[in-house]
Amino acid sequence: QKEVEQDPGPLSVPEGAIVSLNCTYSNSAFQYFMWYRQYSRKGPELLMYTYSSGNKEDGRFTAQVDKSSKYISLFIRDSQPSDSATYLCAMSASGTYKYIFGTGTRLKVLA
Amino acid sequence: GAVVSQHPSWVICKSGTSVKIECRSLDFQATTMFWYRQFPKQSLMLMATSNEGSKATYEQGVEKDKFLINHASLTLSTLTVTSAHPEDSSFYICSADIEETQYFGPGTRLLVL
Fold it and tell me: Does B6 touch chain A (CB under 8 A)?
């Protein structure tokens, strides 16, 4: 079993839809949870950073962490064609710099 | 936000040659940088952790004599792919650690002929 599981997609949605992206993990030591967006042939861009459980909102993006279920989510409201990219979840434990990444979910928002 | 640059953005080389990739943090000092490799439609694979002033820490299965990492200053880390072969063709991405958050460079695409 991988430490971090993420559905690779592709996930296709119409413009304006609410998108839900998810990752599950097995290591209960993870405390830091990140979501990155990666456009084709580009480096990942940090979208959201969350420590421990709870919700965090930034514009159209909301990150949720449920440590009891070992499940994290990223919601995108009013999705736009420019949101079409691969979304990577990443997590790390306290005291370590090392991130564990999901495989990424490819999202396509159709105009 | 934090900015990390990489140079070159792409490189084509002949088999057997060595290629150096630079990773710079532009507006902050980074004690720790990371080098990743990414194959098409796959996630990031950590190759090594680069620490300023000390030897890099390589992940299991990564040849340290083939992928030489130097972190000579707080703003620059370099990855040298020595005696490159076609199987080394990939997308190489660096990141810099700022307060336990990694900020990534734009990546370097390497093609070895």
Answer: yes
Residue A95 has pLDDT above 90, yes or no: no
B-chain CB neighbours of A46 within 8 Å are 1, 101-104
> Which residues lie below 8 Å from residue A57, measured CB to CB, with a gap of 6+?
A63
**A chain contacts of residue B91, beta-carbon cutoff 8 Å:** 41
* Residue range A41-69: mean pLDDT, rounded: 93
What is the distance between the alpha carbons of residues B66 and B79, in angstroms, rounded to a whole number?
Answer: 10
Residue A88 has pLDDT above 90, yes or no: yes
**pLDDT surpassing 90 at residue B58:** yes
Query: Hunting for tokens 């490799």 — which residue is that?
Result: B37
Q: Given the DSSP bridges, would you call strands A11-14 and A105-110 parallel, antiparallel or unpaired?
A: parallel
| Structure tokens given for A106 | 């490819």
Taking residue B55's Cβ as centre, other Cβ atoms within 10 Å add up to 12
Burial class (CB in 10 A: 0-12, 13-18, 19+), B36: buried
In b/e form, how buried is each residue of A25-37, taking b as 16+ CB within 10 angstroms? Answer: beeeebbbbbbbb
Distance of CA A101 to the CA centre of its chain: 10
B41 vs B75 pLDDT, higher one: B75
Other C-beta atoms lying within 10 Å of the C-beta of residue B84: 22
Which token pair is B8? 């070159």
Q: What are the structure tokens assigned to A110, written together?
A: 């159709």
Judging by DSSP bridges, how do beta strands A19-25 and A71-76 pair with one another?
antiparallel
- Residue A34 with chain B: CB contacts under 8 Å: 101-102
